[in-house]
């Protein structure tokens, strides 16, 4: 894939300018804005109204059932025996299959973990654990106060560039998956690489700008972090398991292949009497591991002209 050699600059917020293959030209001011019940450092040019995620009583969410994720709507998850891609296909799971039960057996094959499941038609077989998530009801998820605390720590760790705190919030097996615009490929930071997220300036191809062939090139610090900060320059709207977006030509959706994953959305609307395409949304996918919520994926959305 060809690397763009010339410096291309664009405004990633109303207060920060980013060069795609260059440097962050202007810094963003910071102030303190509370999320939930704690105070975290969020960027803002002035003292804005406070962002609140209403706390609710903590509840225990336990499940012995799993659901399919990261499988396209026109695909199925193949169940194999024995474990591994060379195993014989013995069953298939729909992209939106829920209520899957594990036998308790698992095995490590290379960099992947495979788990044995009970198939819907009876019998057993093996699937890649990457394609399963604990099956948590949306109503339970949205009422879990621990998710509020998780989001507080996650956002503050990004703004404060605290890699150790960030690492404690992400999925212990997946690490952190980032997608620049929902239609672009996933960029995966495994757990052992999350600690270097802020210091590593390696150029990454994040995909293409909507409606163009222009590739988005740069490090996490250059490309992704300023856009996350931009969401919190003013008090964003927030919703649980519901997308919020502004005017765009390509509909902003929570990806179909992640339909069984719960998520929170933060939306910075376009300015009044300004460019109606100048809005930004941050969607954060959250999964449970042994009854504990963790951040799995961050997806950036913006106006697509």
Quick one: biggest sheet?
6 strands, mixed
Shape: globular
Structural class: mainly beta
**Sequence stretches where pLDDT stays below 50 over 5 or more residues:** 1-58
Instruction: Count structural domains.
Output: 2
End-to-end span in angstroms? 25 Å
Q: Strand-and-helix sequence, N→C?
A: EEEEEEEEEEEHHHEEEEHEEEE
**Chain-averaged pLDDT:** 82
Looking across the biggest beta sheet, what order are the strands in? Answer: 13-12-19-18-17-16
Kindly state the number of beta strands.
19
Query: What is the share of helical residues?
Result: 10-25%
The number of helical segments is 4
Portion in beta strands:
35-45%
Radius of gyration: 20 Å
Explain what you see.
By secondary structure, the protein is mainly beta. The protein folds into 2 domains: 9-59 and 138-302, no CATH class; 65-134, SH3 type barrels (Roll), CATH 2.30.30.40. It contains 4 helices and 19 strands. The protein has helices spanning 138-143, 145-159, 163-169, 220-231, and strands at residues 9-11, 17-19, 30-35, 38-43, 65-68, 76-81, 88-94, 100-109, 112-118, 124-128, 132-134, 176-180, 187-189, 204-208, 215-218, 237-240, 262-268, 280-289, 292-302. A 6-stranded mixed beta sheet has the order 13-12-19-18-17-16. Strands 10-9-8-5-11 form a 5-stranded antiparallel beta sheet, with no helix packed on it. α2 packs antiparallel against α3. The longest helix has 15 residues, at 145-159.
